[in-house]
Amino acid sequence: MRLARRSGSTSPMHDAPPAADTLTGEKEPLSAGLKQRHLTMLGLGGVIGAGLFVGSGAGIAVAGPGIIVSYLIAGALAMLVMRMLGEMSSAMPASGAFSVHAERALGRWAGFTVGWLYWFLLVVVLAVEATGAAQIANGWVPSVPQWGWVLIFMVVFTAANLAAVKNFGEFEFWFATLKVGAIVLFLGLSLLAIFGVLPDTSAVGLSNLTGQGGFLPHGWSGVVSGVLAVVFAFGGLEVVTIAAAESDDPARAVGRAVRSAVWRILFFYVGSMLVIVTLLPWSSMQPGKSPYVAVLDHIGVPGAGQIMNIVVFVALLSALNANLYGSSRMVFSLAERGEAPRSLLKVSGGGVPRRAVLASVAFGFASVILNLKWPDSIFHYLLNAVGAVLLFVWGLIAASQLRLRRRIEREMPDRLTLRMWGFPYLTWVALAAMGAVLVLMLTDEGARPQLMWSAAATGAVLLVAGLRELRLRRNPR
Q1: What angle do CA 283, 294, 383 make, to 5 degrees?
Q2: For residue range 124-162, what is the model confidence (pLDDT) as tens digits?
Q3: Cβ neighbours around 131 below 10 Å, total
């Protein structure tokens, strides 16, 4: 039964029907405007962002060549989470994805908590990404102030997301294509340089991997610090499971997107780190400086800095677009389940939850004022507040998968078209790994404030969830 659009509607907006029963796999009352190519490229490009192109330098600085192992560990954790998401979303596609799954598995408090935490994470990060893109654009066109660029980006992407979901899909398809193409080209040029095929280059051998302290110059503690530095770069993979609900065949689409993305993402990340630390001494890397630019400069690519600026700019706009989409669908799903104002359930004739989009983008527009008054300090505190939220969300995803897998096997085994590897053992391994990262954050001076702020934000949401639960039990609907 298709609930995507109401034919013959004369009103530009209509009320969405009650939330679909995700255990029966019924579709959401949103437009099925996303194609398989959109989801596939979203799965591939969704986690390729500034964290990889720029932030990886900090990981190399603390782990040396051992950053390869750090990325393998962090990537393996992300792959396990993505597989869990794929299993649940292919069996029970919903616009709220893991928030719906958490509610089904653990109760209303869990769906409320993970949904609002993820929404909070996305709206803060999209404002920060708009600011990052504005800083680059301001360098190109200084006559337009930074706050002006933020305003331009927010207007353009808000308009695109209000018009039709296919606009989001097309933006993300081409953004992801550019990012994937840039990494493939980078890997190709780097391999040619490693083997001395490029002009004015000679084979480098393994000297940079084994010299200057060896493969693990800071021992395994460096690898652990590297994991802490890079694990959050894998955030963003969750959006593909949210988007799958707006495709013609959600169960099949999310399964294919997850299968195609998992190994390729790991290849891009680990492959990039391998060629970087093979070509250049790890000690030459500086936190905050892109190792990709350093490699391109070493190879002799003219204008390497500007080329990477363009790639990072595209990556930031892509993340902004994806986070706006994901946050709007998450708050729409919360409204469907009575966990957010029901006024957000208005859906346009084209199947777009416009009020949910506007509610999610509001903070992005507020960031225009923040950029005007406090261009540096305010976002430092905001990023601290969401620094560890991703791990809390991943933890609830894993806990939900542990509970739901048995239920799906019992009630609708035919929907288990994509299965979590090594269930339940690898799910428990993933949970243990997340706990270990949180402990590491607690013992690391630089990461501790992020954990504390994020824990405070999570505690506040849990408190609200608990109070709502008590009120609902006293006055059941």
Answers
A1: 80
A2: 888 878 888 888 898 899 999 888 888 899 899 888 888
A3: 25
Whether the CB-CB separation of 162 and 354 falls below 8 Å is answered with yes
- With left for phi above 0 and alpha for psi between -120 and 50, is residue 303 left, alpha or beta? left
User: Is 168 within 8 Å of 321 (Cβ atoms)?
Assistant: yes
The confidence score (pLDDT) of residue 425 equals 95
Cα separation, 6 vs 29, whole angstroms: 9
What does residue 142 show for φ and ψ, rounded to 5 degrees? -65, -15
DSSP three-state, residue 42:
helix
Query: How many angstroms separate the CA atoms of 291 and 52, rounded?
Result: 9
Rounded Cα gap, residues 29 and 353, in angstroms = 9
Residue 268 token pair:
């891009």
Per-residue pLDDT tens over the stretch 194-241: 888 877 777 788 888 887 788 888 888 888 888 887 888 787 778 877
3-state secondary structure 280-327: CCHHHCCCCCCHHHHHHHHHCCCCHHHHHHHHHHHHHHHHHHHHHHHH
Residue with tokens 């998992």: 262
Task: Read off the tokens for 117.
Answer: 């935490």
The span from the CA of 241 to the CA of 96, in Å, is 9
Q: How do 346-348 and 13-15 pair as beta strands?
A: antiparallel
Of all residues in the chain, what percent carry a pLDDT higher than 90? 14
How many distinct helices (H) and strands (E) make up the chain?
19, 2
Q: Which of 342, 343, 336, 356 is nearest to 29 (CA)?
A: 336
Between CA 336 and CA 334 the distance in angstroms is: 5
Confidence (pTM) = 0.84
Kindly state the average pLDDT of the residues 326-333: 88
Nearest CA among 394, 467, 466 for reference residue 436: 394
What amino acid is encoded at 306 in this protein?
Q
Backbone angles phi, psi at 346, to 5 degrees: -65, 130
Evaluated on CA atoms 432, 253, 354, 400, the torsion sign reads negative
Is residue 428 within a helix (H) or strand (E), and if so which, with residue range?
helix 425-443
pLDDT band at 17 (very low <50, low <70, confident <90, very high): very low
What is the rounded average pLDDT of the residues 334-351?
Answer: 84
435 CB neighbour count, 10 Å cutoff: 12
> What's the CA gap between 229 and 323, in Å, rounded?
22
| Cα dihedral 399, 336, 109, 129 in deg (nearest 10) | 70
Length of the chain: 477
Cα distances (Å, whole numbers) of residue 20 to 39, 96, 103, 413: 22, 11, 14, 19
Instruction: Report CA torsion sign: 11, 35, 182, 232.
Output: positive
Q: Report d(CA 162, CA 350) in Å as an integer.
A: 10
